[in-house]
Amino acid sequence: MSEHGRRQRHRTVDRVAWILEAAARAPGGVTVAELARTVKAPASSVQDLVNGLVATGFLLEQHRRFRLGPAPHVLNLIAGRVVPRISQAELGELSRVAGTPVLLTVRVGLDAVYLARGGEDEIPRLVPLADRHMARPLLRTAAGRLLLAFTDEAERRGLLDELARHDPEAVTEFRSALPAIRASRISRSEGLADPEVSALAIPVTDGPVVTGALALIHERRGRSERLRLDRAAARLLAHIQEGRM
Fold this sequence. Notes:
Elements: H1 11-24, H2 32-39, H3 43-55, E1 59-62, E2 65-68, H4 71-79, H5 88-98, E3 102-108, E4 111-118, H6 127-131, E5 135-137, H7 142-149, H8 153-164, H9 168-184, E6 187-190, E7 197-206, E8 209-219, H10 223-241
Antiparallel strand pairs: 1-2, 3-4, 3-8, 4-5, 6-7, 7-8
Helix pairs in contact: 2-3, 5-10
């Protein structure tokens, strides 16, 4: 792919990713037949992929069921701090300081994924999204927009080209908002993913690199919620800068 070209999906890579996610979401493991239904592929093809993933440690087999192996964790260790490291206790403290629920979020391809949450369950319908680490569209969440804004420029262009195929209006709006997001290091969502939710996101960093985002959420009732989130973000940023996490 050229620097400005669109990134193409690859069927085999997609199937491997779906297999790994299915195995990760099944505490008791999954069978080849179950995986074949998930990826909509012949069982023989899935068996070949599973055999390779077991051989390289990405899957473990027990009683003909497959679960996630240690290889993904080892790769994270080799790479260093790829995923933001904020403990549950720290997230609870951040939520207390902000006065709102807080969601720790990372970008996975074209999606934003919640890793963990802190604070009270003020919006119960969002709890399963966080606890099950469900994927959310990047351009429809405050955290996703922030993470996309701080993605490497060449990669961001490719991602936006891909996103434009499905949601051109959202891409146009994001491109217009991009300079302000990068300048302020704050991103907002006023009902983009849920018409009844306001959200604001600030970056989680490892040195100069943005590795994740903290999303602050509140029920959307009007301008007062925006001001409340602004104040919550200011408190949270001051708390983080003082190193009191």
